[in-house]
Amino acid sequence: MDTPSVEIQIKTLPNSPGVYQYFDKNDKILYVGKAKNLKKRVSSYFNKKHDSHRIEVMVKKIVTIKHIVVNSETDALLLENNLIKKYQPRFNVMLKDDKTYPWICIKNERFPRVFPTRRIIKDGSEYYGPFTSFKTVNTLLELIKGLYKLRTCNYDLSEEKIQDGKYKVCLEYHLGNCKGPCEGYQLETEYTKNIEHIRQIVKGNFKDSLQQFREQMKLHAENMEFEEAQQIKEKIDVLEKYQSKSTVVNPKINNVDVFSIVSDEGYGYVNFLQLSHGSIIRSHTIEMKKKLDESDRDLLELGVIEIRQRFNSTSKEIFVPFSINAGEEVKVTVPKLGDKKAIVDLSLRNAKYFRQERFKQMKIVDPDRHVNRLMAQMKKDLRLSVEPRHIECFDNSNIQGTNPVAACVVFKNGKPSKKDYRKFNIKTVEGPDDFASMEEVVFRRYRRLLMEEQPLPQLIIIDGGKGQLSSAVKALNDLGLRGKIAIIGIAKRLEELFYPGDSIPLYLDKRSESLKIIQQLRNEAHRFGITFHRNKRSSAALGTELESIAGIGEKTAVELLKHFRSVKRIKTVEKKELVEIIGNAKATIIYNHYHS
């Protein structure tokens, strides 16, 4: 499928947080931006006049829009920063410098220091973050400093140098901010234990710390120290909003390719995320046509080879959702939990969004392919022998047995065919009997189609459970159509699908397109039947008063109501107006009835 127009690309964008990238006709990146809602943000570039000449020029150059879906606005902010630093897009003015978001570093050394930094140095130190706000970093470090006495000096505290007495305690020790490991006043085991607690705090596990803060806040409030209480409350708010870390970045995941796949009857969609120094630097999804009945494993193995060749990837490790054969030189990892699993889930999410967008674009650009795929999917999901190109759905409507009616709606190629809709007055059934009513309308519908030699549907759907389904099957039996047309029932409560002679229902995935088509049919039949039922009930109620006049029947009452719209107006019109509609004799009866 060729690249669709920009308008179609915008129509099919998701309403999710993420990062969008604009490319020109030469596939050169123009701009990277973040969005809380991708569809709204990208649309805003094309539906208004821009004050900035730079933006106006950029919009004219845009040919392709790519995006990466992420879990939150914070993730989008961080990913935008990574991509701008990597690709230096021409129309991005901000964030091109070498500055980046802050991290908290636990230094790789004896008696580790804990401090904020904007630079990641590969020396084995631990980096937590990145953080979108220095306020969060400072609050965390202040919390750590209040709970644990850590050194701030940059001395090399090796065991030999401490034993040789090379260092003397500084002012921080005398102020009570440090326990003096430089002179051996603090044991390494105790210090290491504190560092482990700090790791938990930075990861977001600070339940005990929050409890201490709340107690301090109450104490200040009781002592009328409201300013101090407010300061602690602000710290609590920051910590409660703090997310332990982002799936977009983890420095421990270095130089890795991430792949995932989703597929349908005809195509597989393989997503690729490239990670460098823990940051996503590329996202790409390819569409692969199934030549035979290939499994997801087969398609993913082919997709991995194609994508790695296309982007000249040299990474020695790949993350995938299930084990595949990627050659002897590549390590294949199937993550089960943690950040590695989260990054595979993110890749899978992007593959799913790409598939949805392709469907939407296909619907607009190539509707035949969309219909063919949908029909093939329904045939497989519903275990049919042929594709259900023509489907009919039946629904009964009555209230306490009054004015019983039924509706039949028709879908052709997955879309409503309203000219073929039919409504039925129940003729042979007395009282509220849904089963007998269903049998009557199904019999009448297909007896007529057979008599008129009209094409029969490939699938009949009955709105109701086993009882209504059995009644409809009996009607098909009487007509000799049993086995010639597939028939199923759908129960409202749990969306169960029943097949004749099978007591165990079929449950389709709630997100399946096949179930959505069936639900749409059921809802349309219900709407059509209810509308017909209400109209009939209203006509009956209005007609009752006129029909109570001696000499006036149902036909005359309907004629008058069609013309004058209400009984109230009929009471007030001149006699000559009534004569024009129903003739002199009946007009005289009605006029005299209301004016005697």
Automatic annotation (TrEMBL):
<keyword id="KW-0234">DNA repair</keyword>
<dbReference type="InterPro" id="IPR001162">
    <property type="entry name" value="UvrC_RNase_H_dom"/>
</dbReference>
<dbReference type="InterPro" id="IPR004791">
    <property type="entry name" value="UvrC"/>
</dbReference>
<dbReference type="InterPro" id="IPR047296">
    <property type="entry name" value="GIY-YIG_UvrC_Cho"/>
</dbReference>
<keyword id="KW-0963">Cytoplasm</keyword>
<protein>
    <recommendedName>
        <fullName>UvrABC system protein C</fullName>
    </recommendedName>
</protein>
<dbReference type="InterPro" id="IPR050066">
    <property type="entry name" value="UvrABC_protein_C"/>
</dbReference>
<dbReference type="Pfam" id="PF14520">
    <property type="entry name" value="HHH_5"/>
</dbReference>
<keyword id="KW-0267">Excision nuclease</keyword>
<dbReference type="Pfam" id="PF22920">
    <property type="entry name" value="UvrC_RNaseH"/>
</dbReference>
<comment type="similarity">
    <text>Belongs to the UvrC family.</text>
</comment>
<comment type="subunit">
    <text>Interacts with UvrB in an incision complex.</text>
</comment>
<feature type="domain" description="UVR">
    <location>
        <begin position="207"/>
        <end position="242"/>
    </location>
</feature>
<dbReference type="Pfam" id="PF01541">
    <property type="entry name" value="GIY-YIG"/>
</dbReference>
<comment type="function">
    <text>The UvrABC repair system catalyzes the recognition and processing of DNA lesions. UvrC both incises the 5' and 3' sides of the lesion. The N-terminal half is responsible for the 3' incision and the C-terminal half is responsible for the 5' incision.</text>
</comment>
<keyword id="KW-0742">SOS response</keyword>
<dbReference type="Pfam" id="PF08459">
    <property type="entry name" value="UvrC_RNaseH_dom"/>
</dbReference>
<dbReference type="InterPro" id="IPR001943">
    <property type="entry name" value="UVR_dom"/>
</dbReference>
<keyword id="KW-0228">DNA excision</keyword>
<feature type="domain" description="UvrC family homology region profile">
    <location>
        <begin position="269"/>
        <end position="476"/>
    </location>
</feature>
<dbReference type="InterPro" id="IPR000305">
    <property type="entry name" value="GIY-YIG_endonuc"/>
</dbReference>
<keyword id="KW-0227">DNA damage</keyword>
<feature type="domain" description="GIY-YIG">
    <location>
        <begin position="15"/>
        <end position="93"/>
    </location>
</feature>
